[in-house]
Design brief:
Elements (H helix, E strand, L loop, with lengths): L4 H11 L3 H9 L8 E2 H18 L5 H15 L13 E2 L1 H7 L3 H9 L14 H7 L3 H9 L22 H7 L3 H9 L14 H6 L8 H5 L9 H14 L12 H10 L23 H8 L2 H9 L12 H7 L4 H9 L14 H8 L2 H9 L15 H8 L2 H9 L13 H16 L5 H8 L14 H7 L3 H9 L14 H24 L2 H5 L8 H37 L6
Antiparallel strand pairs: 1-2
Helix pairs in contact: 1-2, 1-4, 2-6, 3-4, 5-6, 5-7, 6-8, 7-8, 7-9, 8-10, 9-10, 15-16, 15-17, 17-18, 17-19, 19-20, 19-21, 21-22, 21-25, 25-26, 25-27, 26-29, 27-29
Amino acid sequence: MLSTDADKALWLAILGKDAKGVALAAQQGADLNGRVPQLSVSVALQIQHSLAKEHDTPVDERTQVALTEHALSTLQRDPRSRDHFTEATWSPLLVACHYELAEVRNALLAAGANPDEADETGLTPLLIAVRKGDTEATRALLEAGADPNHSQPRAERGVGAQGHSPLVRAAGDGNLALVELLLAHGAEVDRPNSAGQTALLAACGRPHGAVSWSDLSEREDREETSGDLVATMAAMTEQLGKRRAPEERVGDWDAIVTLLLERGADIETEVEGEYPIVGFGLTGTPLIQAAGRGDLPLVEKLLTAGAAPRAAGGTSPLHAALQGAGSLAVLQRLLDAGADPNVRDSEPTPVVGLAARSGNMEALKLLQASGVDIHQRGEKSGGTLLHVAADTGKTEVLAYLLDQGLECDAPMIRPSHTEHTQKLRDTLEKLKREPQSSVLQEALAAPPETPEPPIEGVTPLMVAAVRHRTEAVALLLERGADPHRRDSAGKTARDYVLSSAEQFQSKRGKVQELIQRDIKQDLGDTLEKLPEATRAGLDEQMQKFQATFTGMFDQMFTKKHQAAEATLALFPEN
């Protein structure tokens, strides 16, 4: 790394954004594909940018030389030393494309730099150009011979987590110009990226990165985390500057879908990756993606082009329509196209169960009119739709189902314990025959334990009680639910309220204990390596941290306690 004067001159020219200097260094024999720590380059260029912005003028030559010389001395260090927070090392072309140094990029390509030189994560200059939506850079790289079908290897997290390829990324970003350019230079229309996603799936799926905090808060009924906690965490995170709520994306996805179909894209393509990312355009079929977005015109286009409203990837278009935008028009169109209203997902949850859980009365009635039996029970839980609605406190659904004749005190009828245990054993044996990680192999080697027999006789009232769904409890009691009925463990609905309240109190104590722990004890000798100013400010920062999180969790637990008290007041003493 920087072993010759020519190499040093090359990087001095790159950091100085000097295209002529790059060409001269190349003539002197500089290594055009040599790598340096990416972070050092980033720091040098960001400082230059900040200074120029602050003074509203370009950085003067003397300051620029000083900055680049300092950066070069940093680049001479071992890229894997503790002075660097990343092990990624970048070639000159990666740097030029990332910082959009067009003249430097062109000079490097003209001098023979490898357009496919990737860093340790498999990130190439072309992927960077496509990610930035840089049409000029993309064209220059493709004309220089860059591989339009290269896919970044799938990573567990961080850079490369989605295993992007140029065409899939451009399609997901809604960049029609880049899609056309890549196809014109040999990009294969159905070539999946490392995560198994194709361009058509990406175009039909949600725009890359378009996730809002409101999407998270709407999951209150499906997650243990309350909406208030999600909103509080979102506000705190944004305030701390760690993450900003992304803006809405604008793109030519409809035109891209039309183009890809014209080019022969497989309309029934499915994710092939081992670990699809649900909810980011990486699961199911294009039709499932379009249904999840509630995009009726796109659903219509795909159906007209021959897409089948079938299940795939553990879900179905009907499930996606309800779990996503909840579009009744999309649901109706799918049913008209022959979608099976009784289809279940991999849980296995029926579509009508999603309607009951979310409180979507129109969808519930539409499915019932399509022939769905609202008296059906869950395959795993053995519960009725009343249990589902009670769990999420959807009183309108509860009232409707009771009016339709569902039994108010219908208990859960779980599958045979023996049958359930045998299914678990069969699943374990199947897993043992398939390639697994060493950790899972070790876990599977242990003899399976026989699970405890499930509690029988749980009623909708008990479900509403344990969730502290006060209005649902009141409605069920008003409609004749028996508050004295007991499950197979001898517990009444009131007992469920008491036990859940005790669990919340226990959790509250554990959370407070965790927050109040002196983090300095965990840091140990590490503190001694910190600057004195950092150590001095640690106590103050930790006090702020503890106060913020204590208040946040106190608010959440107080709300839970109040709900438990209100629910308990509805029941007579046992």
